[in-house]
Amino acid sequence: MTIPNASVKPVLETGQDDVIEGPLYAAGKRIFPQAAHGLFRKIKWAILVLTLGVYYGLPFLRWDRGPGEPNQAVLVDLAHRRFYFFFIEIWPQELYYVAGLLILAALILFLMNAVAGRVWCGYLCPQTVWTDLFYAVERLVEGDSRRQRQRQVEGWTFNNILHTAYKHTIWLLIAWWTGGAWVLYFADAPTLVHKLATFQAPLVDWVAIGILTLTTYLLAGHMREQVCIYMCPWPRIQAALTDEDALNVTYRYDRGEPRISLKAGLAARSLGQLAGDCVDCNQCVAVCPTGVDIRHGSQLGCIQCGLCIDACDAVMQKVDRPHGLIAYDNENNIKRRQAGLPSVRRIVRPRTILYTIAIVLIGSTMLTRLVTRPTGGITVAHDRNPLYVTTADGTVRNAYTVQIVNEQSVPRNLQLTITGLDNAKVQVIGVDGHGPIFPFQVEGDNTRDLRVTITGPASAPAHAQIPIQFNVTDPENKTQMTATDNFKTP
Amino acid sequence: MSTNDTHDAAGHEIDGHTGVSTTGHVWDGIKELNNPLPRWWLWTFYITIVWAIGYAFAYPSIPLLNGATTGFLGWHSRTAVVESMDDLQVSRGALMQKLANTPLDQIESQPELLAFARAAGSAAFANNCAPCHGSGAQGSPGYPNLNANRWLWGGKLDQIYQTIAHGARSGDDKGHQGEMPAFGKTGLLTAPQIEQVSNYVRSLSGLKTESPAEVTAGAKVFADNCAPCHGANGKGNISMGSANLTTKVWLYGSDLTTIENGVNNGHGGVMPYWEGRLDPTTIKALAVYVHTLGGGQ
Fold it and tell me: CATH top-level class for A376-488?
């Protein structure tokens, strides 16, 4: 393993007096990755189309939730504190689902890492996807990597200025579209598109679009691999998480070394001498979007996108050697092959089993909870100060705030009853009647606080804590929600 | 320490393990590799400096003897607070207006308005009333427990509003007047009489007394001196704020000494008036809050 810093090497100038310090800051080296063709490139294109398609298109997907509810499939309604995701509606107090999702996402990331290294970095990370798209635009406008290098040497000719301007325009348009799609998740998409088109959208939308346009343009157009190497914490975390059994994009040096030219290799082999398969064509480096040399071993700069596998396989095809000089493999197998043992793929091992169990457990728990959760809720808060009050006639009164949640879009007529304390006098402020049934209504998509006072009978024991139940019944469908609290006496 | 360190053409040391040049700095035998930061990082740093300078001119920043430089944007934390308070008023506006326009007795039957009034009342209570009445309105000796259902000046919504707005013995003309005279100090009653009447008062709510004779004697003292205000049966009178002595709720305490003290020295606690200090809508919210604590009538 080498130090993970292959793309930015310090350039020490010779003949300088104070050279011992070396430069503290390295100028960015522009990378001109060559286009790759092959299996992994195809996978990357497919994922790019899929993920960006979802990102740009999802806000326009409709989902019927009935009257009075938004019909956007995925919507973060900040003003009303609701999050809609297809059939799921999350209220602020249910935000722990989001925490669960994040935990799930982290575990899936760990599992991916344990199975096949930086799958996230290479194929799924937004930074990778958008950078890939921006590289594609660059090649489309300015030509392939050779032409791009030429242009750099030519300097600012009219043609180059024109093409550069052209490229940046397309980049900015994509970036603007990216920012535009973002805000559509926070409001009704078709309405907002119309408002944006007629310049009636609120200022905050323009600011959000502006910020995201800028960050997309900067990160995908200019920062590119610098984000992965200097800004992102995940490479460091995954470097700590990985083990010798995880499959990573690996240069099989057991097969490739010693590197030798094609002709010399043929000659050497005919003489029975040692010759590696690597013809040192540098194609793996040429296609690399982060500019690393995979032959230095796994390294922080390598996002494991597999493009060097495509490039190397194409060359191996041409020189009539077997594919897979660079492949998903690991150091373990190299050592095994060098020792004359067959390669193994240990995908099922303690850590992958543990990650899978954790993912299944958390995922199924969340799903069960989601499917079976009530569309209403009841919580009771006992007055803490004072816990009880002695009234004029010497009886004891406790007061409670009962909160009833109605997550349905229509108003619900419900009934409150209190059980557990015989001969108690119950009062619900704002609700007529003396019980035992207190009818009340909760507006659709709303909560209602009921202030309930319970006066115990004169016979209630002293120093007691008597459990009581607050039951809310829906007379229409006979469903019941119950919360338990205590009646306390001095 | 690397055993296979080399030097490049210019004589810089190259670390053998990594192939990276060293800075020449050594700490306890550990050498620092020269892995320089990218140049854009440096530029980001410069930009933050430029930003800081711009910020220092745009916003109040440099402390002076009196205050600080004002900044050309004119931002001021106090104006910002005023603005956000104004925003708050606007966002509350509709409900506040509704609360102001709704008669007191119709608030509690409207769930949204009740919730708003209770929230506003609770906040106003914590700011203004809690110092005497306690954070939960539980009271303390001399300061009424507002959760209980025994009211000196009446426990109906409009009576509570009246008491909050104008107070008791508060100096406000519209406030409640009347106090418990100091019967002992002024020589109206003798010490034995005070002991007798105190025993009688305890008997009214079924508390233990010293002897039946004391109670019988006390009854006569009570009829002669106390009944005009507290009523012949001791049930009090909310128009003059005289306490109902037959309940289990005691403002100052129910033990004999405390009652004797009260008869001897009198009582005259002050409830301040809040009209003019709080706006009528807030007083309304307070009245609803106190009324819905549980003891309201």
Answer: mainly beta
